Structure formats: structure tokens, C-alpha cells
Amino acid sequence: MSSCIVCRTPSLEFAEAYRTLPRVGSDSRPLPPGGSLGRCPVCGTIQKVMDDAFQAECEMIYSSYVMYGQSTQGTEPTVFDGRPDARSAKLVYALGKSMDLPDSGSLLDVGCGNGNLLRAFRAAHPGWELSGLELDDRHREAVEAVCGGGSLLTGELAGVAGTFDLITAMHVLEHLAEPVEFLGLIKDRLSSEGALVIQLPLWRENPFDLVVADHAVHYDAVSLLHVLDRGGFKPVFLSEEIVPRELTVIARPGKGPWDRGKAAGPGLDAALGWLAAVRDMAARAMESAGKNRFGIFGTGNAAMWLTGALGEAGFYVDDDPSRQGTNPMTGRPVYAPEATPEGSTVVICLPPELSAAIYQRVRRVPANWLVTPPLEQ
Fold it and tell me: Which InterPro entries does the record associate with it (predicted)?
């Protein structure tokens, strides 16, 4: 029996359909079916079972974690909403519009990676003192080239001394088995007027998040507000517009009224059923076209999940020039959209709205473009 990692309810409702689906690491490596996915009957949070197998798999993923298309020197994957944009630049611009940031201050980026957010923040706010926190120092050179010597802190958040005016945690909370405790550590390290910025994926908008093996918790707006409340934070800004299908939140320590209403979007069973439908549609398309004439649009988590589900793909198509050439995980070619082999079949393996938007942009390229089916609400 497993208890909820948010509200400690002693049992979860398990989704049996999850056990039949292949998975993918957050570094985009395909993984076979495994693990358990449950829903808390009290707070509604969707979460993995944090058993020894889950922990071991996470350690395996993180020990060799290299994001495809992201170099150690800061080439950042783009975010697509029908067109490409740099994720960190969009976030920093939005923060400048949403917060009254002074000319100077201190920022800690938890899970800073190779420093993309720090780099974008430095360009917009050069008077701030910047630090990054990571589990190891593999990106020390890249981070300290932006922020100065000693700016990369390594280890756990509990070991970080001092306080900061702004703490950012981009795509961190969904990896944590103890999110409420993490928020407590954040609160202890904020200055008196400090704020926390969180960004994370929304599974109801992007069901592919459910099959990311090392995501411990799968959030919607309601479950995130529940976690923030239990961690002693009050949101002052929420947006699903900065990065599509993701939630960006600015929160400050405190308590206040918040909406415990039902989140909009598909239920868990519908989302898992949709993933199975995408897999089956793509399998039929590949069988009809032949492997070498079958491609997948994208090279991120969704595309590599589908690769694992099918066992192979002939090629990939991607807007991002840094990902074009050869897919290092499969050895298969990655074409720019305009270079897609004529007459081939390509599944645009993305959430329905984005899949349809990309179809409108590429439909004049002479290939058989297939969009993902509608997602039932």
C-alpha cells in the first residue's frame, strides 16, 4: 500500500492502463513499461509509487543525464507553439512584466543545468547577483562563465546558506518525492520580500508527461495550489500562456484563499487512453508506409516515447536546427520540415492543438502528415 506524497492519505487509486504503456526518461531516452501510477482519492494528485525500483530508475537516468540538443555550453532547446522560441528568454521577459524587479538583488536557480535561465536573466538584469544549484559540478564551467567564480553550488538545497530575493525552480518540482518539504527549504532561504518562481508541465494539457518515468508527481493547477498551500506559499501570479501546456507560478510565503475547484481537462483514464490511441494510430501508419518511409515529427520526449512504443522509426523531422542531422539515440536522420522525404508518412506526435498548428505550417510539404486524435475532456 502506498500513501499520497502530498496529503499522506494512506492509499492510492491505481491506473491499470498505465502498466501497458512504454515510457520515456525526462532526457528523452525510451524506456519499457514499468512502475505504477496512482491518484490520491482525497487531494487528487497524480503520482508515481516511490518504491526502490522507482528510485533506482531515477538514479540510472540522472547519472548519465544529457538532454538531446542541449550542449554543455548553453545551446537551449526551443519551445514550440506553432513556431520556435527560447524557453528561458520567454520566462525572463514574463517575469519582468509580472514583477517589480529592482535593479539589484540575488537569485538562486535550483536545478540550473548548464545555466540557460541564468544566462537569460543576466542579459535582462545585469545588476543582480546570480547563483545556481545542481547535484554535481558537470556544468560548472558554463555556469560560472555567466555568473562568476563560485556561483555554482553543488549538493542538496538543505546545504545552501544565506537568503535570496528570488528563487527559481524550473521543471524541478515534478521530480521530487517530497515537494512539501522542498517548499519548506525554499521558504527558509527567501529574503523578507523574496519570491519563488516555479514552472512545470501540465499533464491534462500534455498527457505525454504521464509516461515520463522519472516524474514523481504529475500536476494540474489545482494539485499545484494544494502543494503550495501545504508548503506555506500563496500564489500571486499564475499563467499557462508563457510556455504552452506548462504552468508558471510566482508565489510568496503566506496563506490565503485559493480555489479547490476541479481542474479543467481530461481525466486520467481518458489521457492514458489517448496515449494508447496515438501509439496504435502510429503503428498502423508505419505498417502501411514501411519503416523507411515513416517518420515522426519532433525529437523530444513525445517523439522518443513513440519511438519506443513502435520499436523504431525511419526518420525524424524537427524545426530546431540544433537537433537536425542525426538523432544520437537512434542513429536515424533528422530533417528540417522542408527536407522531409517526398511521399513519406509523418506523425506529428504532439498534443492535439499543437499537432494541428504544426500541420497548418507544414501541410504544403509533399508528405502524408498525420495529426494526433482529439483529446476527450
Answer: SAM-dependent_MTases_sf
Q: How far is CA 88 from CA 194, 308, 368, in A?
A: 20, 29, 34
Q: What pTM does this model have?
A: 0.91
Q: Residue 39 is placed in which grid cell? A: 491518484
- Burial class of residue 261 in the structure, from the number of CB atoms within 10 Å of its CB (0-12 exposed, 13-18 middle, 19+ buried): exposed
Task: List all residues 6 or more positions away from 15 whose beta carbon is below 8 Å from its beta carbon.
Answer: 37, 38, 39, 268, 269, 272
Distance CA 307, CA 31 (A): 10
pLDDT, tens only, 15-30: 999 999 999 999 999 9
In a domain, 17, yes or no: no
- 307 and 165 share one domain: no
Q: Inter-axis angle of helices 140-147 and 116-124, to 10 degrees? A: 10
Strand 368-371 to 164-170 pairing: unpaired
With CA atoms as reference, report the closest residue to 6 among 201, 220, 191, 164: 220
Element holding 179 (H helix, E strand): helix 179-188
Chain position carrying cell 536522420: 333
pLDDT in tens, 155-181: 999 999 999 999 999 999 999 999 999
Calpha distance 358→363 (Å, rounded): 8
